[in-house]
Write a structure and sequence with these properties.
38% strand; single chain; alpha/beta; Aminopeptidase; 7-stranded mixed β-sheet
Length: 114
């Protein structure tokens, strides 16, 4: 397990705990869970992804603070490669689609091939 600390856009200190064994990353502000992501290891994908995003959630009070982006960016660093994301049109909110567009431009995620 690895722990990263960062300040979000509201200057709150957030601790992110990564546990590759369970495929989960948790974001904490003090003793309050701010968000999480679940992932699974993958191999041999056309986009070179090493993990697939299974679930991502940020508590409403912590949204628009960079927590989802930071969770995904640190996961990319942990696995040393991009994350595969299945983001079909209309399946997720506007915020998630916007996040995916930005992360794809940064090379942090690749779309799941069908």
């Amino acid at each position: 397990m690895h722990v990263y600390l960062f300040k979000d856009r509201s200057a709150r200190t957030i601790a992110i705990e990564f546990d590759e064994r369970t495929g989960r990353a948790l974001a904490w502000h003090r003793d309050q869970l701010a968000g999480w992501l679940d992932f699974e290891s993958v191999a041999g994908t056309p986009g070179g992804a090493r993990a697939a995003l299974v679930d991502l959630f940020v508590e409403p009070a912590f949204r628009r603070s960079g927590i989802a982006h930071t969770l995904l960016a640190h996961l990319c660093a942990e696995i040393d490669g991009p994350i595969e994301v299945d983001a079909p049109a209309g399946a997720h909110g506007v915020e998630f689609r916007s996040l995916c567009r930005n992360l794809a431009c940064e090379g942090l995620i690749v779309a799941r091939s069908r």
